[in-house]
Design goal:
256 residues, mainly alpha, MetI-like fold, 2 domains, 82% helix, globular
């Protein structure tokens, strides 16, 4: 049974059948509900083409991607560096670990009104929201990866007179990179949620602003078209993270 399922044509056919069934159900039930809160697939596709033709969708996607990449890349760099530093400096770990766990467990969307009140409406506030959404998954995984370095390996490196720089270059960073990539995969989706939350709650822009605009025009087909694009972006970003993580899995002796 497993060998049959591993066949690429069988898997492709199964996925295609699932998508086809979902499209048929969407078209049928979307046409039955009140247009104020539903739209069939055909109407959504027509609205999608309209939004592309007038440039609204492209502008919204570019705006959201700009915010996403600036915020998330900054979060990855900062979280990776801070996690590695915490693994080497005990006073940092003791001083910040409880706060990190507290913030990691806190729903970040609850912080958005506070961030808005402090930084006001603008790119800085939205950047901060995306940064925080993506920061903690990467930090937590980086810290766990650096902690998993065996003390014996550190002692062996020191016995060969490795300095702190060589220890980071030859042992700590190579061992931690797969864990950082796991954090990136986990944080990629959260950061996209942060983008939408910032565009909804701080100032209307990007895909979040487009959804609000289409909702204000009572165009549920436009809302669904925007949500579908967001879903595709999320799936693509998480797939990229999964591919990178799997390529580095061999560093941890895992078979994926």
């Amino acid at each position: 049974m497993n060998s049959l399922w591993d066949s690429r044509p069988i898997r492709f056919s199964t996925y295609a059948a699932g998508l086809l069934i979902g499209a048929v159900l969407w078209e049928y039930f979307g046409g039955k509900v009140n247009p104020s809160y539903g739209a069939p697939l055909s109407a959504t596709a027509k609205r999608f083409i309209f939004l592309v033709s007038n440039g609204q969708l492209q502008d919204a996607v570019l705006g959201s991607l700009q915010l996403y990449f600036v915020g998330f890349i900054s979060a990855v760099l900062a979280a990776s560096l801070f996690g590695l530093l915490m693994s080497r400096l005990n006073y940092l770990r003791v001083g910040f670990e409880n706060y990190i766990m507290l913030l990691y467990a806190t729903p970040m969307i609850a912080m958005v009104p506070f961030i808005k009140s402090v930084l006001e409406i603008g790119f800085a506030a939205k950047f901060t929201v995306v940064f925080l959404f993506g920061f903690f998954p990467v930090l937590y995984n980086t810290l766990e990866g650096a902690r998993s370095v065996k003390p014996e390996m550190v002692e062996v490196a020191k016995s060969f007179r490795s300095g702190e720089f060589a220890l980071w270059r030859d042992l700590l960073i190579p061992h931690t990179v797969p864990f950082i990539l796991t954090g990136i995969r986990q944080g990629a989706g959260r950061a996209l949620v942060g983008v939408v939350a910032a565009e909804f709650l701080i100032s209307s822009s990007g895909l979040g602003g487009l959804i609000q605009d289409q909702q204000g025009k009572y165009s549920m087909s436009g809302v669904f078209a925007s949500i579908t694009v967001l879903t595709a972006m999320g799936l693509l970003l998480m797939w990229i993270g999964r591919v990178l993580e799997n390529r580095m899995a061999a560093w941890r002796g895992l078979n994926r």
